[in-house]
Give the backbone structure.
Amino acid sequence: MKAIFLVALLLTSGYAQKAAEEVRKEPHHDLHHDHQKGDEVRKEPLPEAEAEKAGGPGHHLKMHRAKDDPNYHGEHGSMIIPVPEYEKYGCSKCHKLHTKGIKSKTGDQDKKEPIAKQSCKQVRVKVCIENRTNGSGNQPMSPPLIHAASRSLGFYNKGVLASDSETRGFCDLAEDGVNSEAAEWLRRNVGDLEPATVDCGVLAAEDGIAPGDTACFELRLSCECAFINNAGVNVPKEDVYVNVAQMQIITNDNFWAAGDILITRENGNDFLYEEADASEPPFQAAFTSLDAGCEINNELCTHIPRSQCLALDACSAAQDAETCNALRAEENGEIDDGQCITGEGAGNKLSPEIYGCPGEVASMTIEVLEGAADGPNGPPAGP
């Protein structure tokens, strides 16, 4: 009996070992790869912590990355979508990967993709500027800076310190006619101002305005501040204040500015100065020169922007041509009234009779246009 029992035990052990070897030869299947055979989902994937321990499908999916697998499932690894979810994305008998534009292991393209967020129809604000220094001042104007915010900023008020203007990039505008630094500062910082402020749009124009000429520019308001609804009506979401600044080029640091012009109605549900509203003409006003307080008014050719310095007969001497706009005489003052060239500076080359501007230097109109904007912010809108 003992001998028979031992023989049976040995035979059973041999069969068990053979069966185990056959199982090991079978290809490995997990929940992630079952969709290759069209299998139904059997259960939810393991939570990540348990999958890490078990080495199951959650772990497997986590390890897929673009650098490791050209058919990866998204930059951060995807999840198998549970039954109620994957059916609505167009796959009734396989696992679908909810990743835009990525093919699953079956080679199928996702039949439905997440809908991209739609951009709003932007409200257009037309700003037209006339350079009024023709014959009195003869001041070419720099490319203007036009921006809008959800509250009054007071950046161009008399008494604002030059140090503040310097921080905001406005001294570059007032001294050199360069608007890009101020535009960049506005884009980066307006949203962080206190009290809470929304940046409604910034335009750093590319073209200046010659004496006697008029140019128009188009500012597109950001969707956070306004939009055009399905009925084609301009709808403000915030109060919108428009600001404009522009340098008189043949000066040390004179400019004109229109600060904090409110273009929404008091009740906050409509725009003032709309093109379609005959009862409200466009905003219109004239402006005199301001001194930024950034640079001492020595009225030297060497301290005005180079393009104009080289063009002026009064500054055409060789020694001036070599040093045009090479120097700055920092003043660290504050914004005050300006007269362009007064004849009181140390230069005595630039004539106040030609380049002085004691009166109006610019006029401006603002009008809110109908219809959505096409293309990027900023091309001239036409007179």
In short: The radius of gyration is 35 Å. The longest strand covers residues 254-262.
